[in-house]
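Hi R.,

Here's the input for the zinc ion complex you asked about:
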Amino acid sequence: MSATGGCLCGKIRYTLKAEPALTVVCHCTHCQKASGSAFSTNLVIQRADIDFTGDMASYDDTADSGNTLKRSFCPKCGASIMSESSGRPGSAVLKAGTLDDPSVVKPTMQIWTRSAQPWVKLEGEMKSMEMGR
Ligand SMILES: [Zn+2]
Ligand SMILES: [Zn+2]
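And here is the predicted structure with zinc ion in place:
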C-alpha cells in the first residue's frame, strides 16, 4: 500500500514504516463530529511505525468506549490525522483519508454500527460490531 500521506495544507507529512495491522471503519458519533462526515476510516498501526514531519495540535476526547482519545490534527488546516487511545498504549489510529493514495485501503471491519447513518451501506467482506472493539 501507499506509505505516505499528510494534511490538506501540507504542514503535516508522514511516512509509514510498516503495514497497518487493521483497517477499521468507525461510525461512532465522535468520529462523525471530528471528521464532519458519516464515519472515519482508520489504519491501526504502532505509533513508532509512523514518521511525522510538522507539529500537530491535539484534543483529549472521551471516546464512546470511555477511554481518553487524544485526537491529533493540523493546527493550520484542521485536517484530522491520528488518534491514540489510553486503552491501547503504543498503538495509533491514522485517518486513512489523509493518505496520498487512499484508494489502496481495504477496510475489514466496521465498528459502532449502532450509530451508523441509515444511508451508509458498505460493500465487501467486513466484520461488523454494534459497538467498539
Ligand atoms: Zn494542514
Ligand atoms: Zn469513532
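One thing worth noting: The radius of gyration is 14 Å.

Cheers,
M.
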